[in-house]
Amino acid sequence: MDTPIYDFVKKYQEKGTVRLHMPGHKGSPFLGCEALDITEIKGADDLYHAQGIIHKSEENATHLFGARKTFYATGGSSQCIGAMVYLTMLHGKKGQPILAARNVHKAFLHACALLDLDVKWVYPQGEATLCSCPISPKQLEHILRSMEVLPFAFYITSPDYLGGMADIQGLSAVCRKFGIPLLVDNAHGAYLRFLPESLHPMDLGADLCCDSAHKTLPVLTGGAYLHVGTKALASFEEDGKNALALFGSTSPSYLILQSLDLCNRILAEGYGDKIHHCVKRIAQLAEGLRDMGYSLQHFEPLKLVLEGEKMGITGYELGEFLRENEIEPEFSDADHLVLMFTPETTEEDFEKIEKALPPMIAKAGNGPKTAISSRGERVMSIREAVFAKGCTVLAEQALGRICAASAVSCPPAIPIAVSGERITEEMIRLFLLYGIEEIQVVLES
């Protein structure tokens, strides 16, 4: 598969052209990558009005992902989330809310604040933690039937930070039944398309979805895709670039664009086989850990989630076992330790993990410490709270105050309190559990 963006930049570098244009480093190797870092010079195309090399590269990505259209983004899935919400809002009617599972990334709240949207939250029927919010098709259909005003879209995160995967096919069928688009934050699942049997939202019926290419594919941080489904409205494709431009910089990184471009070739040349091999090796590691007494949550193919709570140990403590052996996990909290793998994880890496984690004796836990049992009381709209005058207070002193900026640690970047909600004792407990000591609240008059 050709790589038009990378080839153009490489030729430009080799010519030794005098760079009387941005960026200011002029190609000097302060870090070593500057010679390949350019801007929209003649022939380099324009990301948000792509007609040349970027357009050709995006066409390659569209073919690889089997989408109606795949757009590049250099602002991560955060940029694409805003674009998805905006695109579907354009086709909604005045007064329609957006329906969303509660474990959204904070970028979703930012989009809703900027677009002044009303959100109706969906909570799981059973117990859930901050990072998970499993919603079944049956539950979604019941909710939609009970709503006086249908939403203009349904938004869900899958896979979630703990590897939970929604029934996208079933949810999509329900959404089509009610005539509303399904939006999927697939930030952790770009690779799902390249499994022996695709589990990617584009193949399971989603109308729009975003992938953080950099999370699971060999792409620089910030590289992402916005996919438009084959059965989605044609206007989603037509307006996609404008939507991304609304939430992105006018100076997209050409290093990231080259990375996305080169990734097309890598994916086309048998990367799926490498992913399949990696998945099998992860399964071997999981089996070995279970034999050592570890409790593992049902996980997506490239992720292992150790359930510390069920073993009488915290995810933080499990993480320290790894760090003592120069292994850095993706995420840990009081209940879980999350390990993310890709085909770039070497056999030596796997062996180091196996040696680093000691045998574990299962102990009775007292239930997940990160569980959410109550729903927030909305006092103001998200937009009103975000743009209201605010002040910073200690978390312990925030009881009863109205959350202004979404209170969240990153990772997992999932708000404990949504902007506009009244802060409860349970929220304060979670703030402190995640190391959030100060909260931005609406200034009292």
Major sheet size, sense and barrel closure: 7 strands, mixed
CATH third-tier fold name of the largest domain: Aspartate Aminotransferase, domain 2
Radius of gyration: 23 Å
Parts with pLDDT < 50 across at least 5 consecutive residues: none
Query: What is the number of helices?
Result: 15
Distance between the termini: 61 Å
Question: Helices and strands, in N-to-C order?
Answer: HHEHEHEHEHEHEHEHHHEHEEHEHEEHE
Query: Helix amount, in percent?
Result: 25-40%
CATH superfamily of the largest domain: Type I PLP-dependent aspartate aminotransferase-like (Major domain)
- The CATH architecture of the largest domain: 3-Layer(aba) Sandwich
